[in-house]
C-alpha cells in the first residue's frame, strides 16, 4: 500500500534538505582558508627523506628492551612499582619507560598484504594525535613511529593535540622536546584552551591541520612497517 501524498512529499523534502546540508558542509570544509596543503620546500623534504632512510637502515640492527616487539620482563622493585602504578596508568608504565622511543617493531601484516601495490601519487596526510595527560613514553613513541615509518613525501605533518593536559612534562618540556627532535616542523604541538573532550579535540586538530587528508590516531599506539 502506497503512502499518502503529503507523507511522501514530506519525506522527499527532508531528503533534499539533507543532501543540500551535506553539500554545503562539503563546500565549506574544502574551501575554507588554511585547509590547503602547504608546500614543503625541497631542502626540507630532502632532510626528511635522509632521516627516514637513516632510520630504515638502522632499525633491523637495534638492540635493547622491547626491540622488535619483544616483552620487557620486570623483577624485584621494578615489578612492584609497575604493579602499584597499573591501576592509575592502566598499563605498565615502568616497562614502557625502559623501551626506546624509537624502538623497532615486527611487520605483523598478513603475507597477502605484501603483494599489494599502491599508487605513487598519493595525497599528503596530516596525522592528528589527541591526548590528555598521556604518559610521556607512549605518546612520544607514537609520534616517533609515525615519522620513522611514513615515507616523507606522504607525511605532511603530525599534530599532537593536547586537550588541556596538566600532567608534569606535557607543557613546555614537551614543546621543547618536539622542537629539538623535529626541527623541520613535521611534528608540532597544538593545545586547547580548555578541556574539550575527544570529539571537540579532534575538530580542533582538523582545523589546525593543513594536509590533504586527515588520519586520527590514539596517543598510545605504534605505526608498524608497511
Automatic annotation (TrEMBL):
Keyword list (alphabetical) reads: Disulfide bond, Membrane, Transmembrane, Transmembrane helix
Under InterPro entries, the record lists: Glyco_trans_2-like, Nucleotide-diphossugar_trans
Q: So which domain of life are we looking at?
A: Eukaryota
Return one GO MF term: polypeptide N-acetylgalactosaminyltransferase activity
Q: Which GO terms describe its cellular component?
A: Golgi apparatus
Which biological processes are named by the entry's GO terms? protein O-linked glycosylation
UniProt cross-references to Pfam families, sorted A to Z: Glycos_transf_2
* Ranges of residues in domain Glycosyltransferase 2-like: 126-225
Chain ranges passing through the membrane:
12-30
**What is this protein called in UniProt?**
Glycosyltransferase 2-like domain-containing protein
Taxonomic source organism: Dreissena polymorpha (Zebra mussel)
